[in-house]
Amino acid sequence: MTTPHAVPITVPATKKMLMLQQNGGANGYLQHNLIGSGFQGPDIMLRIKMCLKSGIESEIDWALVTLSQISCTSPSLVNLEKSRIIGDELINFFKKPFQILVEDKTMNITPDIMSRCLDSLLTLRNLAQDLINQQWLSQSKTLKRYLIDAMKFYIYWFYSAKDKSQSLRAYHDQFREGLNYVIDILDPLSCYYVDNTKNDPLFNQLLVLLNSSDDKYLLIGIIKSLTHLLFLKKGDSESEKEKDDGEKEENEVLTTKCIDALEDAHLSKILNYLLVGDNDLVFVSLSFIKEYLLSEAIHPSSNHSISESQSLRLAKLLQLHSSKAGAQILMKTLPSLIISGLPLISPADVSSMPAPTLSKRSQYVSVPSVLPDLSKQLYDIIVRFPEPLRATTWLRCCYEPFSGPQTTDPHPESSDTIPGEVTQISLWKAYEKQFEEVWQSSKNQPNLEFPPLLPAVDFIKNVSSAFPNSEAMVVNIPSENPDQPSKKKFIIKGIQPRQFVVNIDVGNYEALKRNPLSSSDPNSESNPDVFDLPVGHVDIDKFRHSIDYVNDIILSSSLKKDSKSVSAINLLSHDILSYIIQVLFRRRDSKYLQDIFRVYNYWLPEMLYANPSLLDAGFIELDWLAFLL
């Protein structure tokens, strides 16, 4: 029988070592003398630079693909300020197909050119999210110019072209991907393009795209970029105010800002997005509206006044001199957006006026002979309570305290329907029957789901805890036969079965409330005869309890502007509406706006009643309510 022996398995990690041992002489000692042994080679960024400089297509393709991967996983490795060649080459490969399109040589565009263009765009898109690279890219006039050219072509291709070039149809999906990358690049870079004129090509191309596209992803990036392009340099408004009144008209035209390029169609489209139930679109639309309204750029029709310029733009946004559709949209949506997503109490959960409870005009209401059963919902809650809380809660829900005068009639031997009294044995039997499921299931083994029942003795002792005005008593019942001794009847005095089961809150309240008829003398002034109460007399104590209960619900909602539940949409909506009301609603000709505000926001007083913290936290201003009257 042959002895098994181990057979070595050659894997890539050991194959190289075996070859070195075979070629290096005795036991591979000469392997250390091989040229290049132990040298790691150039670092990845240096190799990428050399590949981009080499002009070899395979090396360039490797460098661009590697750059796109690094920009996704480790963007901090690429610093365009220190490696300008990478930024320049990325821009060159991105702009190449658009240079060919400008020269009208579409046949020269190849799949390799488009692939490198997209790889470069993706890398630029990822690098533009880094602050240092943003600053470098924003200073590149070449990049900005070709981003505009790229947008012009994409707009033509997707929204204008009727007869598309057959040679370019194969790149339709790549053009769609490229348009998304271009908008993503413009989103952060547009923050650096300030003081743009009315004829700014980038701003106007974005407006064309805004009117043409219905793609949510594109629209969000477009509106954000438009908002950024409205920015002015710090102190620009002061320089506008100091202009000489005699400045030439043509010079004033040159200094007109891009904000005046916005037309009614552009503003209407952005306003309409407030009606869409999409938080991303609503947020960017609100940001744009706020920047548009508060811009300090001087309006051409104003007398170099910032406040007058802002009033003119507000009137244009609200379309006060035409259809007033903008005013209706803002008056309808802004109050709703102010409270959207906040943890509020619905007005339907808070009754405007608690239903009054009438006082009992007689304490001698017939006592039910059958104890009412708990509802399934209430039973499922109480059965899981630990003892003695379960026994106490059950007693208060099924029994009520009795405070009227006790009967002086002799106690029947087997009667449990005397007002204000129950026998101890009937009380225990009723409790045991109600929770039969608990003690039946725990006969053989302990029931882990439900705690065991309270023993009978402890249960009877607990009655006085459940109803402080009750007491356990022993009553002597005279025997019909004078020769026999009287019998004893064990009762609980001061409680009686309810007509209907009540919920836990009502049961606790009635069991522990102060008894107004506590005097033992029914004729005393402090204890008037219940028959003297007028018909419809309201039980004041119960009414106040109901009021307190409603107030507790209302005051349980507490909001602050710095809480986590508050979103930017809430704050932006408040700022815009507050500005509109402050500027326009105080004017004499604002009655139409006030009427619109009143029509669309009829629900607001009820919401404030249920959530007064909206006023306390400043989400809703107190003076707004005057326009609802």
**Secondary-structure-derived class:** mainly alpha
Radius of gyration, in Å, reads 42 Å
Cα distance spanning the termini: 108 Å
Give the count of structural domains. 4
Mean pLDDT: 83
Strand percent estimate: under 5%
Q: How many β-strand runs? A: 5
Overall body shape: elongated
Number of helices: 27
The helix fraction, in percent, is 40-55%
Spatial order of the strands forming the largest sheet: 2-4-3
What are the main properties of this structure?
629 residues; mainly alpha; three-stranded antiparallel β-sheet; two-stranded antiparallel sheet
What does the secondary structure layout of this molecule look like, with pairings?
Elements: H1 12-23, H2 44-54, H3 57-73, H4 84-102, H5 111-127, H6 131-138, H7 141-160, H8 172-189, H9 201-212, H10 216-229, H11 236-241, H12 249-254, H13 264-272, H14 279-294, H15 306-318, H16 325-339, H17 376-382, H18 389-398, E1 399-401, E2 421-423, H19 424-434, H20 436-441, H21 456-466, E3 471-477, E4 487-493, E5 495-497, H22 504-512, H23 540-555, H24 568-584, H25 591-600, H26 604-610, H27 613-616
Antiparallel strand pairs: 1-5, 2-4, 3-4
Keywords: Chromatin regulator, Nucleus, Transcription, Transcription regulation
InterPro entries: Chromatin_Remodeling_Comp, DNA-bd_RFX
Domain RFX-type winged-helix: 391-499
